[in-house]
Design a protein that fits this description.
By secondary structure, this protein is an alpha/beta fold. It folds into two domains: about 5-55 and about 85-105 and about 205-300 and about 500-560, FAD/NAD(P)-binding domain; about 155-195 and about 305-370 and about 395-495, Cholesterol Oxidase, domain 2 (2-Layer Sandwich), CATH 3.30.410.40. The protein has 17 helices and 24 strands. The strands form six sheets. Strands 7, 8, 15, 16, 17, 18, 21, 22 and 23 form a nine-stranded mixed beta sheet that branches. Strands 1, 2, 9, 10, 11, 12 and 24 form a seven-stranded mixed beta sheet that branches. Strand 11 (about 235-245) and strand 12 form a beta hairpin. Helix 2 (about 20-30) packs parallel to helix 17 (about 545-560) and helix 11 crosses helix 16 (about 490-495). It is globular and about 70 Å long. It starts with a helix and ends with a helix.
Length: about 575
């Protein structure tokens, strides 16, 4: 054996994948298909191995979303510039966001990916990514084109929708909006049955990629509840990571490292490791490995607001129907500077898996083509201190205009006579995510559930008074008789952030000073390091980001295997 071979064998792995989330699980599973490549997956959160997945993660209602044990503690973000930071839920659990999200499995529009290519992401156009989307998806509703990939997707048939959704479909069709049989078939605007990541339980990235068979591979190992603090380098070549597991500090070595920590923690890890704007890192005492001013810049997220509706008995689903998002509408604002499909509504069947949850549903409207850009930066070099997240949402005036269009469109849709006949009131909800207002875990969750059940079952006048007091600065906007439409200012004030951060380690051309990775997601300025998650998106997709993040993980693994 040569000295070089002995050195390679002495490494802890050939590839270390940091983060077992939506993209990371895909990267690790795909790379470990090559038996000659030793792969180590490191996840900061707890594992969810086959046969031991917690019930709230398995559930087809997103109960895991309000379990704080699955989230990074202490993480906060400001929504608008100058505002105080508020809690910003980001997953810290095997499967990442796929284990806690609302399970909507949309891909985005062809124009999203063609825009990436124009921004310097060569070979990331729609023609390039569509085959990956198709190959990675196990679409239970389309057996003819089903590639039987790992990611399980289905739709709830229209005949099982609550009455108000069917009425919305009819109204939109009468207005000339298309009713799409399958949103995967094309990139058109329209109303559609929402593809969701589930069969009879949630289909997380961990479930779909980190199967018992994958975990049994002799060249694959997993470390959980292990937080990577920084990358290690020899000159500008990556040599591994320093990680903390309990009270133990680990120095792990590898020939290559793939960072899959998401658009908040991936740039934070690069910054702590000396890859980023030198003028900001030196004052923190961080030694510079590569002066890359784009690390943490270009942050984007979707904005959304919620209308809550109290459903009449004839519009409720049966208790056995444990569905959250069931249908959606994507449409274009049509104003100059907007993008195709820049506005989005999604419709839920219930607000809680318990019986009282059937009494209320949500129409959530979102800006899916934002132009505003924020940033992620370090407050300190200490890896235990959460990064600073300045979302700077609505810093672009066009985003304000389009959010107002989305809000009024949603409210007017609910006021259509055939639709409003299905419910008793409409409430404009405050920024705080509605599910967190009435859901929780343990004793707190039980008390919230009992209180919500009592309120929703109370007489209308009492119900409206209690809900109105509990959702301030949100308010009642239709009481069953009188309308008090929200103003433009109220719509913007009610709009908060979704949990789709992207673009903080963006793909770009070599001559773009703000680009962080090249079109194969190799980090500029260093050797042996790649980033593979939503942070590499040059711009946010006009869709929930889970499926796109998995696609990125699949493609990066393909690039690495090809080499």
């Amino acid at each position: 054996m040569t000295a070089a071979a002995r050195h390679d064998h002495a490494r802890d792995a050939d590839v270390i994948v940091i983060g077992g989330g939506s993209a990371g699980a895909a990267v690790a599973a795909r790379l470990s298909e090559d038996p000659s490549r030793r792969v180590l997956l490191i996840e900061a959160g707890a594992d969810t191995p086959p046969g031991h997945v917690p019930d709230d993660i398995r559930h087809t209602f997103p109960a895991a979303y309000f379990n704080s044990g699955y989230l990074w503690p202490g993480l906060k973000a400001s929504i608008r510039e100058g505002e105080a930071p508020t809690p910003f839920p980001q997953a810290r659990i095997m499967g990442g966001g796929s284990s806690v999200m609302g399970m909507l499995a949309v891909r985005g529009k062809p124009e999203d990916y063609d825009r990436w290519e124009r921004m310097g992401a060569a070979n990331w156009g729609w023609r390039d990514v569509l085959p990956t989307f198709q190959a990675m998806t196990n679409d239970l509703d389309a057996p003819a084109r089903n590639a039987a990939g790992p990611n399980i997707v289905r739709r709830i048939p229209r005949e099982r929708w609550p009455a108000y959704m069917r009425r919305v479909d009819e109204v939109l069709t009468a207005r000339g909006r298309r009713s799409l049989a399958d949103v995967y078939e094309n990139g058109d605007d329209g109303f559609f049955a929402a593809p969701v990541s589930q069969d009879d339980e949630r289909a997380t990235s961990a479930r779909c990629y980190l199967t018992a068979e994958v975990r049994a591979r002799p060249n694959f190992s997993i470390m959980t509840e292990t937080q990577v603090q920084r990358l290690t380098f020899e000159g500008r070549t990556v040599r591994g990571v320093i990680a903390q597991r309990g009270n133990e500090t680990l120095n792990l070595t590898a020939a290559e490292v793939v960072v899959c920590c998401g658009a908040v923690h991936s740039p934070a890890l690069l910054l702590r490791s000396g890859i980023g704007p030198a003028d900001e890192l030196r004052p923190l005492g961080i030694e510079i490995v590569a002066d890359r001013p784009g690390v943490g810049r270009n942050y984007q997220n979707h904005a959304q607001l919620h209308f809550a509706i109290t459903l009449k008995p004839q519009s409720r689903m049966p208790q056995s129907a444990q569905h959250y998002i069931m249908s959606a509408l994507q449409f274009s604002s049509g104003i100059e500077g907007g993008t195709p499909g820049d506005l989005f509504h999604y419709f839920t069947g219930r607000i809680n898996p318990k019986a009282f949850g059937l009494r209320m549903a949500l129409l959530s409207c979102a800006l899916y083509g934002p132009l505003s850009r924020g940033r992620v930066s370090l407050a300190a070099a200490d890896p235990n201190m959460p990064p600073r997240i300045d979302q700077r949402m609505f810093s672009d005036p066009l985003d304000v205009k389009r959010m107002i269009i989305a809000g009024h469109h949603a409210f007017n849709l609910l006021l259509e006579p055939s639709v409003r006949a299905c419910f008793e009131e409409i409430y404009l909800m405050p920024r705080q995510p509605p599910l967190r207002l009435i859901n929780g875990t343990g004793l707190t969750g039980a008390l919230k559930a009992a209180g919500a059940a009592a309120v929703l079952a109370s007489p209308g006048k009492v119900r409206r008074a209690i809900i109105g007091a509990g959702i301030k600065p949100g308010r009642l906007v239709w009481d069953g008789v009188k309308t008090a439409a929200p103003s433009d200012d109220e719509i913007v004030a009610a709009a908060g952030a979704m949990f789709h951060p992207t673009s903080t380690c963006a793909i770009g051309a070599p001559d773009n000073p703000l680009a962080v990775v090249d079109p194969e997601c190799r980090a500029y300025g260093v050797e042996g390091l790649r980033v593979a998650d939503a942070s590499v998106m040059p711009s946010i997709v006009s869709a929930n980001t889970n499926m796109a993040a998995i696609m990125i993980g699949e493609r990066v693994a393909e690039f690495m295997r090809a080499r």
